[in-house]
Design brief:
Layout (H helix, E strand, L loop, with lengths): L17 E2 L13 E4 L13 E5 L4 E2 L6 E8 L5 E6 L7 H4 L2 E4 L2 E4 L9 H10 L4 H4 L2 E5 L2 E2 L5 E4 L2 E5 L2 E5 L1
């Protein structure tokens, strides 16, 4: 496993840092909870997407800052995948933003304020070798306890925010 260690001359596990785009399922073997190292944003090679492991916690608390935890997903066809989401005080997809790891990449279900184009959706299905019927609905649950909203539910499609309402497209 490749892990960024600032000042490559240290083996201190507390210095482990990973960019969100480089985060992989295997990083959860290091720690069950990872937090965004926002307080280190100005350090070389780090920005607002830099993650660091939390070694001394077993319950994710959104009051401590933005973090991610491991999640299990089950597609409508019964396939099991793992991924991540962010604990939050309110169960809102825009806050928990579930993402699923596959051997073809990360599949994100939250599109923010941008409605995904039909071609984009079709390309995602093709890339992940799924169809609307084999993928959705997806059941998910966090494998790490958290304070705040329960991280368990169902994903019915790709979600986006339009006129302050969550819309679903699949």
């Amino acid at each position: 496993m490749t892990i960024n260690l600032p000042n490559n001359n240290t083996n201190d596990p507390s210095k482990i840092r990973v960019q969100f785009d480089d985060f992989e399922l295997k990083h959860f073997d290091i720690a069950p909870i990872w937090e965004f190292a926002i307080d280190e944003e100005g350090e070389e090679g780090q920005d607002e997407t830099t993650l660091r492991p939390i070694f001394d916690a077993t319950i994710a608390d959104p009051a401590d800052g933005l973090c991610i935890v491991k999640v299990e997903f089950q597609t409508s066809s019964g396939k099991i995948y793992f991924g991540l989401c962010s604990p939050a005080f309110d169960f809102k997809f825009g806050e928990i933003q579930p993402c699923m790891f596959t051997d073809k990449g990360i599949l994100s279900f939250w599109c923010g304020m941008m409605k995904p184009e039909r071609l984009q959706i079709e390309n995602l299905y093709a890339q992940f070798e799924e169809t609307k019927d084999t993928l959705f609905p997806i059941k998910f649950k966090s494998l790490t306890k958290s304070k705040g909203a329960a991280l368990e539910g169902q994903i019915d499609g790709f979600m986006f925010l339009e006129n302050e309402k969550v819309k679903i497209i699949n």
